[in-house]
Records
---
Amino acid sequence: MPINERYPVAELLKACESFVKERRKIITFEYILINGVNDDLAQATLLAKQAKKLRAKINIIPYNKVEGLDWKRPNLKRIDAFRRRVEAGGAKVTVRMEKGHDIDAACGQLRLRQEKEQAAENTSCNN
């Protein structure tokens, strides 16, 4: 991912290679697709190359909009183009379309709402 700094991708891939070699297990990459951040076709090509090398599966997860963050979900056409590019690169890929993102009820969205409600309750209890 282009913004990754805490865990360099090269180190992560090296660990994945060791895991696959030692355990003889299939790994799955959960790839959160963020509009304008990591959804370009060059990223899809790189992802496919690494996944194919590791014989890994890829779950593409379109980003769920969260209040207070500027990131956005790519449109369906962009998601499909990304998936097709990964597939064309020889990797096994699925797109996980979560329900509820349109009403802020998908993964990550409900938790934020719950945390805000709890914070509001704590504030009113302390006053």
---
Amino acid sequence: MTNINKIIIVGIAIIALALGAYYFVPNSEVSLSNKTPVIMPTAELSFLSLEAQSNEEGSVTITVLPRIAEGADRWEFAITLDTHSVELSQDIAAISVLRDDTAGTYAPLVWEGNPPGGHHREGTLVFAPITPLPQTITLDIRDGADEKARTFRWALRAAK
């Protein structure tokens, strides 16, 4: 092996060691812009213990499960609609309203679920949280055929 070959091998080894040290040795001055940040929650949300409710009046069965936590930035209601006789073509957000025990009414922010159509739909109806926490809430969902409201009511303070 000639001196030139030895110099090349030593040079490659030095470069490999330098690159390895740069990538594997912690250094506070090395940029972290290519690393994914880890977000640690500051506080765990405590969800209220609320039961699912079903209403089988008429030709559509509606089941609602509230997912509400104090301090959350949104209140969610998991909703399932089932039928064997009519098309589920309603805009769920447009036919729903949330009421509190002080006569306040609240329109949903968004429906995150199946689009209109078919005989089975499910999704999440999202509302802004009500503060302060009311004693009770009522979710009314109007039946598109006869405009009769299906009513679901929960006691929130008792669920804490």
---
Amino acid sequence: MKLSIGIYKKSLAFWIVVGLIFGATALLLRRNSQQISASSELPQEVTLPGAFSGTVVIARSGAVTFQGKPVKGTLKTHKDFDEFQLKIFDEPGVSFGQARVDVVLPFSVSEPSIKITPYLIHSFDSQVGVQKIAPSTIEFTATNIAPEAVFTVNVQFGKGLIAYPWLTRIAQFFSTISFGSWIVLSLVLPVPTLLYVLYLLYRQSRVSIAPSAAAVISSPPQDLPPAVVGVLKHGSVSARDIGATLVDLARRGFIDIFWRESGFSFGKRRDFHFYSLAEMNISPTIRRAKTQGLRGYEEVLLSKILPPEGYRSTDDDIVVRVGHRLFSPKMAEVFTQIYSIATAHGFFVKNPAAVHRTIRRRGIALFVAGVIGFAVSGILGPDPKFFLIFWVGMIAASLLIIDLSNLVPLRTPHGTKVLGDWLAFERYLTDRKEISYSEITAGVFERYLPYAIALGVEGAWTYRFRRHPFAPPPWFGTTTNNISLEQFDRELFPLLGWVAQSLVAAKEPTVE
């Protein structure tokens, strides 16, 4: 079998756009900022012992050149002053008899705020000097420079003497904020986000579940698909709902599930045709797929795990069918249709899929902005990089939004009333009292098993049959002889969990 890997076009386009934004932002910052970059090495005009001379020009815009070549990372800003510092020699490895560097400023040397300091270390019997040779030019000199010497020129001057580009001014402003202030700013996004989510949870908890007329209901209160019941209880589609749907399809005679120690397989029990999403033109309302007795999302789900031709799909086949795309539009359609059915019944104020999609997209956009900001600031930003804490806070807030987006949809009063009835039925499923043998022969275990899975109580439901003879459902095959109820649980539920989790993981990230 040849394995082909496809990429969902929207996902590919999304990451291409992210890459273009990142590259354009980095290029823009490099072109417009003079110190939002790592220090460049000083161009070396002289490599032989003797005399060294050069000229540094500082432009009004903050651009610095040495011998006509740009030098970055030499201008730094502080709270009360700006500073120019340039290493002329950093252990050059050879001796110099003398060195002269002229620094041309964009303002007069007579400015009262100017402080001029040369530094020469690791060099004995040396002398350094500073003098004004023009209204805006300072001459730095040094003699007897040793091979291991470090010669640095430093000029400090008042704020406002250099008109930095606007991006540089923004970076300068942020660089003057203290570490403690950045800690506070980093909480500006995550804390309100967390409070908002907690508020939504509080609102959800305030919507009281209407008590049922009976404490326990011994049959499903409505003819609803198991997946919709799971959404009604939990607020979002989960792997449980997918697993419950597969068991319900098996119970209704569409598929067989066969377990063996080396793996498992799904088989068709009926000869039905799969339509593509375009062919089906799926309606978001409750419907049956063509005339096959399948709901729309059920047909889409089956087309994801079963081949269009043939009658059997092994666990290896499912791995290929689930993993041949980066994201699966079919699984996104399954989620969307389940949400649409729940909304059409009036259980939710607004379609949960639309709410999840809007909030997750905002969270993803915030995450991308945080990652780009962190990367660009980390690479090009001035020291100290306290402002990176802000981007960490933004990323944390975005992850919080993405992770908790499924908590937002609120049930309607009708939805809470219906949920109360289903919770009364759940109490029947979890009752510790054993089920009588006559009910077993009536097939109640198999009939209610999908609902038990969707409600998350399949273990308690099977426990009610623990002391009675057990015959596996006709749709479940196994290599185990004389299978017991406990063995049935150990074989069916893990394979359902694996398949359902794999299918859920394949959906598009904009659907929760």
---
Amino acid sequence: MITPLLRCALLLLTALPLAAQRPTASRSLHVLEGVPQRPMERWVDSVYQELSPRERLGQLIMPIIYPVPTDSVQLLERLKREQWGGILFQKGLLAEQRQLTLRLQQAARTPLLIALDGEWGLYMRLKDAPRYPRSQQITAASTQLLEAYGREVARQCRLMGIHINFAPVLDVNSNPRNPVIGTRSFGSTVEEVKRGALAYARGLESGGVLSVAKHFPGHGDTSEDSHKTLPSVNASKARMEALELAPFRSYFAAGYGGVMTAHLRVPAYDPTGRPASLSRPITTDLLQRQMGFKGLIFTDALEMKGAQVKPGESLIVAALLAGNDILLGPPQPQQALRELEQALSKGEIPTQLLEDKCKKILRFKYALIVHPDTSQEASPAEVKHRIWTSEEARLRQQLEQLSTKRAKEQDPTAATGAASRRK
């Protein structure tokens, strides 16, 4: 016989799984706040109608480019043929990249989303930019200082015509054998990562640059590098909820606008062993449906060894069908576009899916490029001078002092060397 007390207990137990799957309570996206909706939708609809199916597919692709001047003519020709949605620049110099950005924007049929992989600022990719400590070295900074740091990086990005920064790292550095996260993380606990990463993201987005949290659903507890192979996170759902997913939930709830999916096996959420970046159960069901994320979803670079598919399967099509919006760094962008075209013509990519993805990207373009005041962007000749300011130097000094103090606490003999390397 089931007593009233037992019935109540059973009801509570059956409700627990449902409670765990409720979408994260999230506010509206910061990047879309203050953007007039009607003009944005008119612009999005107008641009979308003008694009051919091939050009709509091109909006989903973001190749990785090294800004070498001798390649600029060929690069412009490729852009005219393929009409990518954006570009991630890697190594280079400030004026060189700024000049190439201007030329590419002039050649693009729709504005390009320009991205930076700059976890600790522009210097991570552009060697004549200000150099800041890595995230782990400034964990002790106040949230006000970390937010100011994010705003300063955003200011420099806007001068360069950069709209997106692939930062912050939300991975909890919980595995000391991890070869790829380490000092890129804000800490080894959930609270350290949430505190540091969200303050940095707040600064980036208040400065007009889209932040992108990475590497979903969490790359901290691996002993392998997804650039070289396909790592695994062999944790239970309960452990994932408590550790790996917790910083992402806080980031989504705060209304920040971008996330990057990782090339990781996560058997707790997809027992097939498919990488999270190519897994519909993870990228669509977990990230979007259960956690309620509405922002832009980027794959990690598809040229990485961890992006693995079955023989004969299209990597680029798999990444799109998994639920990603922007397909970053395919090994051969032109071939990737052809494979997307073929999949669209065969009905493997539904027309409605393409429309939804393309229009979503166009809305972010309007919010990040069309709507903002672009007068703050610098010319190639003046960009370096406008980035290196006295205010920037004061902020950098504060961060360096914190980094030196942490280095001294960890290893007193390393403090002097650490300080000299940052000069």
